[in-house]
Design a protein that fits this description.
By secondary structure, the protein is α/β, with parallel strands linked by helices. The protein contains 15 helices and 23 strands. Strand 10 and strand 11 form a beta hairpin.
């Protein structure tokens, strides 16, 4: 029998991120993952802007970019085959470098997992067990008892934990054991084959997120670059009405690849997989001391690239709350805000991803009948132009305290209670971001004549044993452009903005009366930590 404060089940990007966050917050944790090595069949092929911001906080941005595979010039290319007639292109989503410090990055999931595994192995306070499964899990009072078992045989080992985060995937055995249903629908099935081969003669100078070739028996057969050179994924979409189609045989996979490429092709087939394409969200995110995160909590069609990214944000939302509860700073009720904040985001992303998948049907019908396909292709811009969904989503209830400042509704990237705090460069653009000062602790940003907020923050932080950092803006420590700060944050010179450890705004307030600063800030923190919402 061994004890840990936090048990993380599942060592994909979400579980690994949760372990790194636990280490940063000083929570001893244990991570268990059934696969000894990352799954070789690539799943996600990119990290969106907010996901890259979170990996930046782990100090991994440069390492991830060093393994980035390619920067596609186009979003989708529609054609008979790679060597056949082309019908149209959907441009990639615009990269607005003013909205964040990092932008997105094209990296295969298996490569990302290797980077995260290496960092977890060196993280203080993390005990990682790869090649290990959870045989059973029971809850008694405020403790969870798990029985661990090596996948290659060996003795079982019991662990007790105060909290468990289940990041064990779409088929989540822990979710099933907790009897938590998934709500939503199956969209279809994707048969997928991962292969290596040289098709540079038909690619030419084209590069895209995905090439979609119209199969006459229905739907698209894709060629999706993994590295843009020799590693590829080919998918075939199958209707949900026909049932699970099973795995492609090697002969079927070879035929599918050659049909998509449009000529005989020497393809080295690495692996095949078939999975249900679903838009489903768990009915509950919490059962006692066990929380669902990532694919265990929500599964989306891959048409949009929000699965991995939403899951990493789940961990970023949850772990700081667990840390404050374990340290006695916040009540257990704070943990209820994880579901009230994250579940609506998952529901919205599931619906959006499903609509993206359905638009492909209209494009296919136009192409296969040789009709002009311009309008459906034009509508697919919405599939890739998702920066607002990624960076400007807003929590409307949860660990929030409201405020008195007027929100600029015309600018979804401006500060508002529940939104991610806006990015601004510190000093020279391209080096440090205001976001770098906010991650991992409560931060109070206050205006030029708001020095009493500094005194209030110091007093309350000491009283609550809460890491509470106060920054005057602008100042030597926070040398942002004053005009840009005013445009995006909009607080008065005597006002203040309280930002949570996950970078979301909890409270905004205008000028306070003399003597009010401590009272107002204490009440804002009380409401935030108790999870009373707006």
């Amino acid at each position: 029998m061994s004890d840990t404060q936090l048990l993380i089940v599942g060592g994909g990007p979400v579980g690994l991120s949760a372990a790194l966050l636990a280490s940063q917050h000083g929570i001893p944790c244990m991570l268990v993952e059934k696969f000894p090595q990352p799954f070789a069949h690539p799943k996600a092929r990119g990290v969106r802007d907010r996901g890259m911001e979170l990996f930046r906080f782990f100090g991994l941005e440069k390492e991830i970019r060093a393994q980035a595979t390619h920067t596609p010039k186009h979003g989708f290319v529609y054609c008979d085959s790679l060597s056949g007639e082309e019908f149209g292109r959907t441009p990639p989503g615009p990269e607005d470098t003013t909205l964040g410090p990092v932008g997105s990055c094209r990296i295969p999931q298996d490569s990302l997992e290797r980077i995260l595994r290496e960092r977890v192995a060196a993280a203080p306070g993390v005990e990682a067990h790869f090649g290990t499964t959870v045989h059973s899990l029971t809850q008694e009072g405020n403790q969870v008892r798990a029985l661990l078992e090596p996948t290659n045989g060996g003795d079982q080992h019991a662990v007790t934990a105060q909290y468990v985060i289940a990041c064990d995937g779409a088929a989540s055995p822990l979710r099933a054991a907790l009897d938590i249903p998934m709500e939503g629908e199956t969209v279809g099935y994707w048969q997928s084959v991962y292969w290596h081969g040289d098709i540079s003669d038909v690619m030419g100078d084209r590069s895209a997120i995905q090439f979609l070739t119209a199969a006459e028996d229905g739907g698209f057969v894709t060629v999706a670059p993994v590295d843009g050179h020799t590693r590829w994924l080919t998918f075939r979409m199958r209707s949900k009405d026909s049932g699970h189609p099973g795995l492609l045989t090697e002969t079927q996979a070879q035929g599918l690849i050659e049909a998509a490429v449009g000529r005989p092709c020497r393809a080295e087939i690495m692996s095949a997989a078939t999975y249900a394409v679903e838009a489903r969200v768990a009915a509950r995110y919490r059962a006692g001391s066990v929380f669902l995160a990532g694919d265990a909590a929500h599964v989306f069609p891959p048409t949009g690239g929000f699965g991995l990214n939403t899951g990493v944000q789940d961990a970023h939302n949850l772990v700081w709350k667990i840390a404050l509860v374990l340290k006695g700073v916040a009540p257990r009720e704070l943990l209820d805000t994880y579901e009230s904040e994250r579940r609506p985001v998952a529901q919205s992303n599931a619906q959006w991803s499903k609509e993206n998948a359905q638009r492909f049907d209209a494009v296919w019908e136009r192409i296969i009948t040789k009709a002009p396909a311009g309008d459906p292709i034009e509508r697919q811009r919405a599939h890739l132009a998702a920066i607002e969904r990624d960076l400007a989503f807003r929590y409307t209830e949860g660990a929030l305290a409201g405020g008195t400042e007027t929100v600029d509704e015309a600018n979804p990237f401006s500060a508002a209670v529940g939104r991610r705090a806006p990015h601004l460069w510190l000093g020279s653009p391209g080096e440090r971001s205001l976001l770098d000062l906010l991650d991992g602790r409560f931060t109070l940003l206050y205006g030029l004549v708001g020095d009493p907020w500094q005194e209030a923050a110091a007093s309350i932080g000491t009283h609550l044993h809460l890491p509470l950092h106060a920054l005057r803006v602008p100042s030597a420590a926070c040398d942002v452009d004053p005009a840009e700060f005013d445009r995006l944050y909009g607080i008065s010179p005597g006002g203040a903005v309280l930002v949570r450890p996950d970078g979301h705004v909890a409270w905004m307030h205008g000028d306070a009366q003399p003597g009010d600063h401590t009272t107002l800030l204490a009440e804002a923190l009380r409401r935030t930590l108790a999870g009373e919402g707006l």
